[in-house]
Structure formats: structure tokens, C-alpha cells
Amino acid sequence: MNLLERIFRYQIVASLVILLLGAGLFFLSVRYLIDEEVNKELLRSKVKVSWQLRHIDTLPVYILQLGDSLQLQPVRYPGKMIAVERRMYNANERQYHPYRQLIFYEQVEGQWYRVILSKLLDQRQQLMKAVVMTVTFIVALLLVSMLMLNSWLSERLWRPFYRTLNALDKYQLEKHEVLEFSRTRTTEFTQLNQTLTQFTERLAASYQNLKEFTENASHEIQTPLAVILSKIEGMIQDETLSESQLVSLSEVSEAANRLSRLNQALLLLTKIENRQFLAGTEPVNLTPIIHRKLRDLEDLIEQRNITVSTKLEPVGPVMHQALAEILVNNLLTNAIRYNVEDGKIEIQLTPGKLTVCNTGRPIQGDPELLFERFRKESTHSASLGLGLALAKTICQVNGQTLTYRVQDEWHMLTVTW
Amino acid sequence: MKLLLIEDEKALATSIQNYFQRENFVCEWAPDYGTAMEKIHVYEYDCVLVDLMLPDGDGLQAVRELKRKSPETGIIIISAKNSLDDRIVGLNLGSDDYLTKPFHLSELNARVQAVIRRRNFQGNQQIGFGKIHIDPQEHSVAVDGYEIILTRKEYDLLVYLIANKNRVLTKESIAEHLWGDDADLMDNFDFIYTHIKNLRKKLMDKGCPDYLKSIYGVGYKFSEQ
């Protein structure tokens, strides 16, 4: 639920509560006023009736008021004076009408009478209803218009905020952008935008620094390695060298090569983790990549007499093309490297899933541990131990999952997206 | 053939120079941007090797200047920067190849020869060694005029061996040349032996002497002796 919707909901609830409470209170207070008024009138009538009854022998009795009624009942003892509201049946109209009654006791010529003065409330109640409803309606109208005005205003006033939000949503660090916003008249939003601009400036700067650092580090390490390798290559050409010297040189060269590959793999890993590869919006079709990699690796596959079977559909996850290549390459080379002689590889590509299964020796412990850097089966000491870590990282940054399962002699690596 | 090497690392530059001198190339060295500009404007080169990070300037600027002054010269960027954007920028500016450090000198040599071949002879120059003749345009190989059919890898291997004739080639450099980034699988060099064996057999079947010598523990050497 967005901010404006939430505000709107609270406002509606608050308005309804205010409206109901207000209407109720208004109704009660109007009723109270009317009751007071009727009571006063009844008391005034009572004074007249009492006076008349006391002088009944000297004065003619006349009707007090239209619609009011007066009842006299002889009683043995007097009671207390009370005022009640009661509905009474009108035989002529055949319906009940509300009355307010004042009951009191009066002695006439030695006999006690219960005097009931009744006053029709119909018109007053109708008036009351009309007043309460009119006022309620006016208040409701006011609240609704306030609500509409409010939501319109909020939408207008919050517009810069949503523009900022939208810009942030589209923000991509890899593009080295600094977010710039158009001016707003709201101080808070101006402040927010300024802070964000500064923030992205710093972000872009440190990202640039980091990128430069990784590249410079690579440069600094690769250059001495290039010197080492070039010197070794020059020395190897020397025909006066003995066989053991040549073997030593070859070992040095191998180690330097390994160091260089390790450095490159670590740099690649860092770059992927820094999300320097922009993900595409279109899924990469993995089928041609898999076919190409299988062709590149066919020497190895043939040499180890591995049977490869594929079941591929032209689908794939959304990711950078280069990363997709590295992912496929690492999964396939892993399946070849840890395979057994005359082994099998099965590749299945279906929507949302890529599975690479290979035969291999059973492993001890949790297969998921093989995703850690430099974790490898000791028998293959020459491998860098970074292949699966790279594959895992690629999947992680792109929101895919990579799982490793071992079942009997089958090793199963699955990418799901 | 005349080369210019623009590279600030003296030790590396010396190795490269020595390597190409044995090939009877004239290889001049410019340790910085200023010297490089002087040399470019005074002399003509067949191929220029440019390092991108120079103490007093950007190698890319040197590439731009070279393209402007003598568009016929081949350009190979040698750089430790291996990010995709750098490669794209470099190649877009008109360099012919991009080699990331560290590289094998034999690989650099093969690439330089390929660039010179492409530039000077539109790829038509025949590659010859002893009884072997290669037409790079057609990708065809003949021994004594009899054509032999090679796989893509065997062809690449043969061209590489001839480009670096009379030199010892390490197994790593061969593997890297043939498989590029996939050479990560080099924990096992058996697959190189397979290709070498097949290539040697195909050549010798057509009466070619065995030019390929195995150097114990190191690699191979392609020579007529």
C-alpha cells in the first residue's frame, strides 16, 4: 500500500469516527435541549393546572393546550412528581405518538388526584431529526470535500518525492551516474534530493576508486609476472642449459602461469561481486553457448572418452552474455575435470532450469562446500579451486540459485532461475 | 621488418627486444609517450606494440596518433587491463589485436606475424617451412604440393609452431594459444600430446621429415635440424 493510500485510509477512518461521534453528540444535545424546553412548558402548565384545581369551585375548567391532554385519576395517597416519555396510542390515527408526561398529585376538596399532563412531541422530534440530519449532512459534505482536497493536494505535493523514488529505482552504480533532480518548492524534498545527489556522487567516486584499484592491482601484479615469464621464455631458448635446469625453469614458468591465472580469476570474482557486469533484460539463450563450449572442449571430452548427451531448449536466465559464457564454461569444465575415464555427462536445459550431471568419484562431506573459494578435491591439485566459486557468485548476483547434489556416482549441478 | 615497442617496463621490453632480434626483426624501444611520439613521426614501422599505461601519457592516445599518421602500420595493444570495455575501446580505435599481460613471447610473436601478414599482404603471404606450404587465406596446408587435411586446432598449432620456428615452445604457451581462456584446464597436458601426435603423423604420412622435437620437461621445438 503506498503512502498516499495509507494517509487516505486513515483519514477516511478518522472522518467516519468524527462524523458518527459528532452526529451522536449533536443528537443528544439537541434532544436534551428540547426535553428541557418541554419540561419547562409542562411545569408551567402544572402551575396553571394546580391553580385551577385549587380553585375548581370558583373557576370554569378550560383546555390547556391543543395536542396536550390532561388526565385526572383519584388516588388514595399522593406520590412523587415525575416526568416520563411515553408512546401513546392514538385511536383516530391508529398509530403511536411520542408524548412527554408530567405526573403529579393534587388534593381537590379533600380527595387526592393523580394528574397526568401529556405533551405531544411529534413535531419537535421531526424538527430535531431535520436539524440533526441537515447538520450531519453538512459535516459529512465538509469531510468528504476535505478528504478529496487532501488527497489531491498530497498527490501534488508528494509528486517530487515519487520522482526521486523513481530515479533511485532506476539508479545503476555501474553507469557511474550522479543523480540530479529538478528543483522542488518543498524544503524537505530539496534537502532529500541534495542529500541523494551528494550520496550518489560519493558512491560513484568510491566505485570508480574501487574499480581503478582492482585494475591497478591487476596491472601491478601482471606486469612483474609478464617480466618473469618473458625472462624464462628467453632463458629456455638457451641451448647450453642442462636438462635439470630446463626442468626447473619449466616448473618456475608453470608456477608463474598459475599465479597469473589465479590473479585473473580472483579479479574476475571481485568484479562480479562488485556487480560490474550489467545484467540484461532479455534472457540469454544458453543453447548456442553450450554447443560452442562443447565444441571447444571436444578434445578433452574425446581424450577421456566421455559420452555427452544433451537435451536443450532455447532458453536461459537473464544475465550478462559474458557471465553466461563463464558460467557454462565452468560447469562444463567442472563436469569434465572431475569425471572418470569413459564417464558420462548429461546436460538438460529446460525453462527455468539448467542441469549438468556427470559421473565421478563419490565425495566426502557436504557437496555444497565445494562452492567455497579454494575448496577442491585434493586429487586435482593443479586446479585453481575457483571454478565453482565463480559459478556460484555469478548465479548469486543475478538472482539464480546453484545447487550441488551427489547421488551414487552422479554429480548434479543445477542452476534455477 | 621493423617494430616499435612502447612499454615502460624495462625488463619486459628487453626480453621482447631480444626475442624479436632473433627473428631478424628490428625492434626499437620507446620507454615513454614522448619518445614514442618522436619515433612515430620520424620513422615508419610495420607493427607497433603499445602498452596502455605509460608514465607520461595514455597509450590509447598513442594509438590514435598512429592511426592518424600512418594508418598502414599494424598495432597491437599489450596491457594488463583486461576488462571488456578496455578491449572494446582499444579495438574500436583501430588496433589490430589486444593481448593481456602476462603473455608468452611466442604468442606475441605469432600475433605480430599475423598482423604483418594481414596488413602488408592482405593475408595472401604464403607461410612456408621446409616442405610445408600454408595458404593463410585458404587455410590450406600442403607438403611437397600434396594437400593435407588438418583440423582447426591442428592448423592453428602448425601455424604457431612455424611462427616460432627454431625456438622452444612451452606446453603452457601452446595450450594457451590453442584454448585461450579455457587453458585453465591445463592441469593435464595430455590433450596437447594428442594434437601434436596427430599433426606429426599427418605431416610424415606425406613424406615430411620430422621437424618437431620434444624438449624434455619443457615443450617442443620446430626446426629443420
Automatic annotation (TrEMBL), chain A:
<keyword id="KW-0597">Phosphoprotein</keyword>
<keyword id="KW-1133">Transmembrane helix</keyword>
<keyword id="KW-0472">Membrane</keyword>
<keyword id="KW-0812">Transmembrane</keyword>
<dbReference type="InterPro" id="IPR036890">
    <property type="entry name" value="HATPase_C_sf"/>
</dbReference>
<keyword id="KW-0808">Transferase</keyword>
<dbReference type="GO" id="GO:0016301">
    <property type="term" value="F:kinase activity"/>
</dbReference>
<feature type="domain" description="Histidine kinase">
    <location>
        <begin position="216"/>
        <end position="417"/>
    </location>
</feature>
<dbReference type="Pfam" id="PF02518">
    <property type="entry name" value="HATPase_c"/>
</dbReference>
<dbReference type="InterPro" id="IPR050428">
    <property type="entry name" value="TCS_sensor_his_kinase"/>
</dbReference>
<dbReference type="Pfam" id="PF00512">
    <property type="entry name" value="HisKA"/>
</dbReference>
<dbReference type="InterPro" id="IPR005467">
    <property type="entry name" value="His_kinase_dom"/>
</dbReference>
<dbReference type="InterPro" id="IPR003594">
    <property type="entry name" value="HATPase_dom"/>
</dbReference>
<dbReference type="InterPro" id="IPR036097">
    <property type="entry name" value="HisK_dim/P_sf"/>
</dbReference>
<feature type="transmembrane region" description="Helical">
    <location>
        <begin position="130"/>
        <end position="153"/>
    </location>
</feature>
<keyword id="KW-0418">Kinase</keyword>
<dbReference type="InterPro" id="IPR003661">
    <property type="entry name" value="HisK_dim/P_dom"/>
</dbReference>
<feature type="transmembrane region" description="Helical">
    <location>
        <begin position="12"/>
        <end position="34"/>
    </location>
</feature>
<protein>
    <recommendedName>
        <fullName>histidine kinase</fullName>
        <ecNumber>2.7.13.3</ecNumber>
    </recommendedName>
</protein>
UniProtKB/TrEMBL annotation, chain B:
<dbReference type="InterPro" id="IPR011006">
    <property type="entry name" value="CheY-like_superfamily"/>
</dbReference>
<feature type="domain" description="OmpR/PhoB-type">
    <location>
        <begin position="124"/>
        <end position="224"/>
    </location>
</feature>
<feature type="modified residue" description="4-aspartylphosphate">
    <location>
        <position position="51"/>
    </location>
</feature>
<dbReference type="Pfam" id="PF00072">
    <property type="entry name" value="Response_reg"/>
</dbReference>
<protein>
    <submittedName>
        <fullName>Response regulator transcription factor</fullName>
    </submittedName>
</protein>
<feature type="DNA-binding region" description="OmpR/PhoB-type">
    <location>
        <begin position="124"/>
        <end position="224"/>
    </location>
</feature>
<dbReference type="InterPro" id="IPR039420">
    <property type="entry name" value="WalR-like"/>
</dbReference>
<keyword id="KW-0597">Phosphoprotein</keyword>
<feature type="domain" description="Response regulatory">
    <location>
        <begin position="2"/>
        <end position="116"/>
    </location>
</feature>
<dbReference type="Pfam" id="PF00486">
    <property type="entry name" value="Trans_reg_C"/>
</dbReference>
<dbReference type="InterPro" id="IPR001867">
    <property type="entry name" value="OmpR/PhoB-type_DNA-bd"/>
</dbReference>
<dbReference type="InterPro" id="IPR036388">
    <property type="entry name" value="WH-like_DNA-bd_sf"/>
</dbReference>
<keyword id="KW-0804">Transcription</keyword>
<keyword id="KW-0902">Two-component regulatory system</keyword>
<dbReference type="InterPro" id="IPR001789">
    <property type="entry name" value="Sig_transdc_resp-reg_receiver"/>
</dbReference>
<keyword id="KW-0805">Transcription regulation</keyword>
<keyword id="KW-0238">DNA-binding</keyword>
